[in-house]
Design a protein that fits this description.
single chain; 284 residues; Arylamine N-acetyltransferase fold; N-hydroxyarylamine O-acetyltransferase; acetyltransferase activity; transferase; Arylamine_N-AcTrfase
Length: 284
């Protein structure tokens, strides 16, 4: 999966970024913020029977030219290509998602992450974790509270794996454990195929979309439930009832370029296979 065909100009236009391009920490933070706000986390192609492809040309066609979103492998693969085009030193990593679980839960490595080496130190970059992806780079050191444009975050060492936590309304919440060893792209291909095709993954039957919003808010859609969480952790929830409401939210609030037929098909799959309004720990 070579990055040589990456169109940096088109990517920067898509995320609305016109700032400095020198590979510094400040530029990295601005790029994370811009990318996260412009390209929503979403898994709708999986519902439509289209397992994501991770080659750079396909990612560009989907998320840049077609103005769609993507999930962790798509998002961080595209972001990695953008960072490398600017001269950043990147190591690809994986994480064990423990959102809503015990901090040391025996979880598989199903999340893609990026490690960025900078003069100031080693940082985590992640634009692909749905409703709690960090909106700035985080130094990979434990026990230090780090401000982001949204939540305060920190890492806790658990058996040699740094666990990312976010401080929410009811205290520190676990997100994922970072495995500190480099990964090959072939390993992402295997994990992507598993998460996109296994019948028990939540992506098969549920509409899952997320995006950071203005004023440190977060907006998450899980089936017909749309949740907007403000900077203080207060959540406002509403339920969608009609096809037009689904279309308005997916296109208007999340900026997804989807046809009526695609949205209607996702709603039909949701009604047939989804878990309804049942809470999911990863997308609370």
């Amino acid at each position: 999966m070579s990055d040589t065909q990456f169109d940096r100009k088109a990517w920067l236009a898509r995320i609305g970024y016109a700032g400095p391009l020198t590979p510094t920490l400040d530029t990295l933070n601005q790029l994370i913020f811009a990318h996260a706000h412009a390209i929503a986390y979403e898994t709708l192609d999986i519902m439509l029977g289209r397992p994501p492809r991770l080659d750079v040309p396909t990612l560009q066609r989907k998320m840049i030219e077609s103005r769609r979103g993507g999930y962790c492998f798509e998002q961080n693969m595209l972001f990695r290509a953008g960072l490398r085009s600017l001269g950043y030193s990147i190591t690809s990593l994986q994480g064990r998602v423990v959102r809503g679980l015990e901090i040391d839960a025996p979880r598989p490595a199903i999340h893609m992450l990026l490690k960025v080496d900078l003069p100031e130190g080693t940082y985590l970059a992640d634009v692909g974790f749905g409703n709690l992806a960090p909106t700035s780079a985080l130094m990979l050191v434990p026990e230090i509270e780090q401000e982001t444009p949204h939540e305060v975050m920190r890492f806790i060492d658990v058996g040699g794996e740094l666990t990312l936590q976010a401080r929410l309304r009811h205290g520190w919440q676990h997100i994922y454990r970072v495995i500190p060893y480099p990964r090959y792209d072939g390993e992402y291909e295997i994990t992507n195929w598993y998460t996109a095709t296994h019948p028990d993954t939540p992506y098969q039957g549920n509409i899952i979309v997320a995006k950071p919003g203005p004023n440190r808010s977060r907006i998450t859609m899980y089936n017909a439930r749309v949740t907007v969480r403000d900077a203080d952790g207060h959540a406002e929830k509403r339920r969608l009832a009609t096809e037009n409401e689904f279309r308005d939210v997916l296109r208007g609030e999340f900026g997804l370029n989807l046809s009526d037929q695609e949205i209607d098909a996702c709603v039909a799959v949701m009604k047939a296979k989804g878990t309804g309004d049942a809470p999911h720990p990863f997308f609370a």
